[in-house]
Design goal:
This protein is of the alpha+beta class and 661 residues long. It has 17 helices and 14 strands. Helix 2 (41-67) packs across helix 5.
Length: 661
Amino acid sequence: MTERVYGVTPPISTALPTEAEKRMHQALHEELRAQGTFESRAETEARKKVIAQLEKITTAFVKKATAETQNSFMVREAIGRVFTYGSYRLGVYGPGSDIDTLVVAPKHVTTEQYFRLFPPLLVEMAPPGAITDLTPVPDAFVPIIKFEFSGISIDLIFCSIKGLTQIPEDKSWNLTDNTLLRGLSENEVRSLNGTRVTDEILNLVPEPATFKLALRAIKLWAQRKAIYANIMGFPGGVAWAMLVARVCQLYPKATSAVVVNKFFHIMLKWPWPLPVLLKDIEYNISVTRAPVWNPKLYSSDRNHRMPIITPAYPAMCATHNINRSSKVVIMQELEKGVQVTEEIMTGRAPWKALFTKHTFFTSDFRYYLTVISSSRTKDAQNVWSGFIESRVRVLVNKIENHAAIVLARPFNKGYDRQHRCQNYEQLGDVVNSGSLAYLYKPTPEEEEKAKGEAKTEVKAELINANLKPESVLQDGPVVKPEPGTETAAPPPVTAADGAAIKPEPGAESAMPPPAPPPVADGVKQEEVTKNGDGVEQKDGNDGEVKLADIPEKKQELEVFTTNYYIGLQLGKTPASLDLSREVQEWMSMCRSSDLYKEGVNFLAVTHIKNTMLPDDVFEPGEVRPRPPKKKLKRQAPDDSSAQQPTKKSKPVGPALTPAVS
């Protein structure tokens, strides 16, 4: 009986592992456990219970949706199914990992019903307080509902199968049949293909256990090096999984340790843009209008720099977001990985040497751009910051085409902050300049209360903000330095003509009326009068308590921000660097979205030096960059009493020109 050949080419080696390689495999397994990549059995059981509860809620939802349009027999027979995909289905999840989940329903259940009926049913049927951070996002390319279920983060997408009036009750029923895609739109195909791709990957590796352990190692490495984020232009979890799976196909008998070592060698030398394939691409299957990846036919596919192609029909590129800068960064990290794993395999270094943390903030760059997304409410910020995060890579694409920019690298996550300001000027400093002078850290009680409240998306109406949009947000992009220190006096907020901004007439009337000042014990409100100076006091003896002496609580202006950082590597250091045009175009594009609400959402871009980065981007033990020490010139002794004029020192590095408003 011939042995199965995996992949589109024969294997490089089918040699059995040596005793030394087995020992290296065991050492890798122990290091991954020490690194905390495995969760406890109790945590895994909690995940299974959550999925079982989602199955019950899904069937109840399908029955309720069916009752709106179908007869009683259809309602009685109606069921829904829940499928997982991503890291959970691959079996490489760890503590705190989310569960990517798909709800499958029969053809008569619509997406509109999903977003209208499922969220309230979810809250109703789940244990009290189990559902938190509930955020439906119906306008996403793949519509999604995000929430936490008993502390486990869930990303729930939806698809109704156009060819099925009923979902089969058979537990072994799956989504591998291509005809299930018939009649689906492209975003519906993407929803269904999450599970289909995951199942195909597991079916196309020779040893699933070897693949899973190697993938855990590569995922941890990519996360530590900050190159794990599809939304920011780096490979996501599925892309890294397909790369590891391809190496497993080329070394079908190897241990996980050998697969990790060969991964770096092969991917560093891979002749990009030659695509990475786990199986031959299927063409000429006319069950859906969703396009199949084909660089000969589509120019956009020819532009993919590091194409990694999904194995399920229709084949798609999982790395279309990778740009010039992110490819350079990935190749640099692969080269370092080759050096480190060679030392590990020869016994000169332990496995933990592979998982050292990135140096994005500590030493990689001298200059950064900061994208500041902010909102007046937490719910609004959940939506707005998510949208801005999905558009940061578009700004990077614009910036890296600038003649003076060698590399523009976004950090793979944003930093959430909460601020409380006393007036509009302070609020303007936060949303326009990224001031950190008014940071607010919630108390543990407040955090617990916020966690217990269900959060829903705010989209249809403006928040009753205490602020007119034009009072803090300029029409054009704001590109100016962040405050040098948190204690420095914030720069004045100005309009386009340079005049200081104050709340427009009528803005004060839009505020909620302040609560009346408290009245001291023994003082009746009706006894309060005003003296000749307009000061309120109680009639009676001078020794009585006056209301004017009781301090009135100031109304605070709350704002939530999420900052995204882009490291800039410059060529020949220019005297100045003007990115105003690129930033202007990008900000205009973001503000044109239906998700942008004036007076609720704000957006700004500033530049900052590495020595001025906020404290919270550094972890304990990391050494933050410091300004270079100035060299003092030695002066020769001179008997002359004439004082030589002192030359002015020139600024080091380029001056980033602010964008014109």
